[in-house]
Each structure stands twice: as structure tokens, then as C-alpha cells.
Write a structure and sequence with these properties.
Elements: E1 2-9, E2 12-18, E3 24-28, E4 34-37, E5 42-50, E6 83-90, E7 94-97, E8 100-105, E9 120-125, E10 128-131, H1 137-148, H2 172-185, E11 192-194, E12 197-198, E13 207-208, H3 220-228, E14 299-301, E15 310-313, E16 330-332, E17 341-342, E18 346-347
Parallel strand pairs: 14-17
Antiparallel strand pairs: 1-2, 1-6, 3-4, 5-6, 7-10, 8-9, 10-18, 11-12, 11-13, 14-15, 15-16
Length: 348
């Protein structure tokens, strides 16, 4: 985040200091209109205030009301915030996925799977942003800590092999609430509600408003469209074959002709200590849209509320090549928190 603030004393305004030259308050008028220069990489801005330059800073309007009565007539003193600052919430590492249609023949229907996959597929989406990588353990922890201090509760704290590894062992319900908390923390409007209230606690299938500015899970169509990276009719995000040079998965080339991994089993670089044998995000080349780990390392939850189980997409470090195919559908109970599954957010 980048921050600048301005002070006010008896109607005279002065800049206290600027942490970033490209984010600067230029004026604060007597009418209350605050003007500041925006920055290129901001996802949103948050106006905060305090009674002194040292804070504590807040953007809670309740702090400006409910002045207690002193029990009689006469002067009443109240600490009114006199210093204002603008906090720019920088855009997360998200990639613009261009809207359009990706349609073609479906390799999964050509005798590669015992499920009834259609012979062709057609995916149509409008523009959206997707996290460049799966949510890491450090990213999860930062929002999780904020969320617990702001009325959220989770069933699982989440695990991770390292700070830059994907978070895992989180349920579908945890993921939805985490998306809302991330949205609120960043000054965006949450997408998930229950009875018109922001979804923060419990295990509910919430209402979703994809027109809101906040973070959410991708729909199954959005995920597959993004995973294909602009390629048409391919098994994987980067072509028709997979190997340990392109993804972190469990190789079994003896059973899958499209698995060209020279070594059978877990990825040799990351097979150490205890499972899961995840790799740091960005360890392999991205797909055509600049997305990492769409075909291995960790599966992610998708928005699929129609069935008792929920869809997961992508492959994981301990799963074979067939699970990593773009069109492959996996299922899990929404309460399950397994080592193979994490999350990746999207937003408009």
C-alpha cells in the first residue's frame, strides 16, 4: 500500500509528508471535498482520519458520532479527527483475462476418460481479472489475521509448505469467506452475502453478485477458459503433453501417453520432508495468459453451488497427469479441507 496524508488546523491545510510522490493529496476544501492524485497501480483508495498525525487511523464513521452527554449544559469537548490520509490499495498480482469464446474438440472425449465428456467444448466469458498464482500461505495468513479481527470465523486455519507455496487444507466455505475478507480489507465490495449481509461466519451457500468489485472464486467456465491460455483443443495449458519441466505433478508415463515425464513419481525437486510436495509459485513457465500453476502444484475451488459436492480444477503435486488436463472435473465436499486443494481469486 502507498499512503499520503494532509493535516488541518483551524481551516488551514498543510501537507504533512508524502510517502510516494505519485500519490498526493492536493487540497481539502471547507466543503469537505478532498482531492488527490491517483496512481497507476491502485485497485482502490481508502480515506482514513485521525486526531493526530501519529494515529490511530480509522475509516469507521461511527468514530465521528455518538458524542456522550455530560449531564448538563455548557461546553462539550470531543476529539474530532483533524488529519486525513489516503491509502492506495495496490492491485494484487492479477492478470486480465480477455473476454471471448474458446471452442474446440475435447481431447477428454476421445477415450481418455471413463466419464461422459462431450466431444466438443465451448467457453464464453466477459473480461475478468484472475490471480496470477494460487493464493500463497503468506497471502492467506495476512487476510486471515485481518478477518479474525473483523468478525469472520473459519473452520480451518490453512496449511502451507512455505510462505511462497500455495495455501492448502481449506474448505469451500473457508474460501468464500476469505474472498469476502480480502475484499473488505482492500476497500472493495464483497460478492458473497447471506440474507443481504456479508458472508462472514458459518457454513452457508451464499448469494453471489459477480457485478460487485470484490474477490470471488472463479466459475468453472472462467477457470477453464483462463487455464487454456488462448490455446484451442489442447489437453494442458501449454499444449498436449505434460512433464516435470512444465508442471509439478505425480508422473506416470507408463499409463498416460501424454505424460512425457522422464522420471516416474513425484517431482524430484520438491519431493522432500512431509507431504504435500508443493513447489513455490512461479516455479514453472506461465500459460498464454500469464497464469502460473494452472496444470499442477495445487487444485483450486470453483464456484459450483448446484450439487452436494463442489468442483475443483487443476492438478496437484501428488496427483497424476490426467487430473491436470484443462477440462478435467474433480469433486469434493464443501466441508473438506484437503492437502490437494487451495484457491485462486478472480474479480471484475
Amino acid at each position: 500500500m502507498k499512503t499520503c496524508f494532509i493535516g488541518m488546523v483551524c481551516g488551514l491545510f498543510f501537507s504533512s509528508f508524502v510517502w510516494a510522490a505519485d500519490l498526493q493529496i492536493t487540497s481539502l476544501e471547507n466543503t469537505g471535498k478532498l482531492v488527490f492524485n491517483g496512481i497507476t497501480n491502485a485497485a482502490s483508495y481508502r480515506i482514513e482520519w485521525a486526531s493526530s498525525p501519529g494515529g490511530p487511523w480509522t475509516n469507521d464513521w461511527k468514530k465521528l458520532s455518538f458524542i456522550p452527554a455530560t449531564g448538563g449544559e455548557g461546553a462539550i469537548t470531543n476529539s474530532v479527527p483533524m488529519f486525513f490520509r489516503v491509502v492506495a490499495v495496490l492491485k494484487a498480482d492479477m492478470v486480465l483475462i480477455p473476454g471471448g469464446t474458446n471452442a474446440g474438440t475435447n481431447p477428454l472425449a476421445a477415450g481418455e476418460d471413463n466419464l461422459n465428456y462431450p466431444a466438443t467444448y465451448s467457453l464464453t466469458v466477459t473480461n475478468f481479472y484472475m490471480d496470477e498464482t494460487p493464493v500463497t500461505k503468506s497471502e492467506w495468513d495476512a487476510v486471515y489475521t485481518w478477518a479474525e479481527a473483523h468478525g469472520y470465523s473459519f473452520d480451518n486455519a490453512g496449511g502451507g509448505k512455505g510462505a511462497d507455496h500455495p495455501v492448502h487444507s481449506i474448505s469451500w466455505y473457508d474460501s468464500l469467506k476469505w474472498c469476502n475478507a480480502r475484499s473488505e480489507r482492500d476497500g472493495l465490495t464483497p460478492c458473497y452475502t447471506v440474507s443481504n449481509q456479508v458472508y462472514k461466519i458459518g457454513q452457508f451457500i451464499p448469494d453471489v453478485d459477480v457485478t460487485k468489485t470484490g474477490y470471488r472464486l472463479p466459475t468453472v467456465t472462467e477457470w477453464e477458459y483462463a487455464a487454456r491460455g488462448g490455446l484451442v483443443g489442447k489437453r494442458f495449458p501449454n499444449g498436449n503433453t505434460i512433464s516435470h519441466t512444465t508442471a509439478n505433478y505425480y508422473s506416470d508415463s507408463a499409463h498416460y501417453e501424454y505424460d512425457s515425464g522422464p522420471e516416474a513419481g513425484y517431482h524430484p525437486t520438491y519431493h522432500f520432508y512431509a507431504p504435500p510436495f508443493t513447489s513455490p509459485v512461479r516455479s514453472f513457465a506461465p500459460n498464454g495468459y500469464g497464469l502460473y500453476d494452472m496444470d499442477g502444484n495445487i487444485q483450486v475451488w470453483c464456484w459450483e453451488p448446484k450439487y452436494a459436492s463442489r468442483q475443483m480444477r487443476g492438478g496437484a503435486a501428488n496427483q497424476k497427469a490426467d487430473v491436470s488436463r484443462c477440462g478435467k472435473i474433480s469433486w469434493q465436499s464443501p466441508t473438506d479441507a484437503v492437502m490437494t486443494c487451495g484457491l485462486r481469486c478472480v474479480r471484475k
